[in-house]
Amino acid sequence: MSPYREEETIMSDISNRPTRDTTHETTHDISRHPDVPEMQERFERLLHVREDSALDSAVLLTGLYAAISPWVVHFSGSNPDLRMSNVIVGLAIAAYGLGLTLSPERMTRLGWACAAMGVWLIISPWVVTVGHNPTHGMIWNNVAVGAVALILGAGSAAIRMATGRAAKGTHTMSSAHTST
Fold it and tell me: What pLDDT, in 10s, does the model give residues 75-89?
């Protein structure tokens, strides 16, 4: 008998082994695992943290437009005070929008600040312009951009307040555990 024949016999012998009996095995039920409540809470937080994610890009773009609007509407040369106001407030709104994208859990509390900057954009043509005599383009531009910033900021703050109330109503795992 050749050594190759013996290997073939062993190989064929493996195929004839009885299958494993799974009738007496226990199934693993994860619902009784001690970490399930914490995992469920973490999953719920991940689902609800970014309810205002649609606002990120809109706030960022609103701020960038407010910053460049003196050149778009052509009042950068005729009214440098309003130009600087729009640039500063626009960049602040854009920074808030970028912060919402990068660190939303920290920035959503500043929604009311974005709304306040929107109010400033609305009233600034009358407050900042020399002689308090703004043109129609300045007024329409700032009122439109300011209204958008006001709505987005108030929406962000309202979402934050709603999710904050929901979080207070739930029982967190960190407060559920007592020190041993």
Answer: 989 899 999 999 999
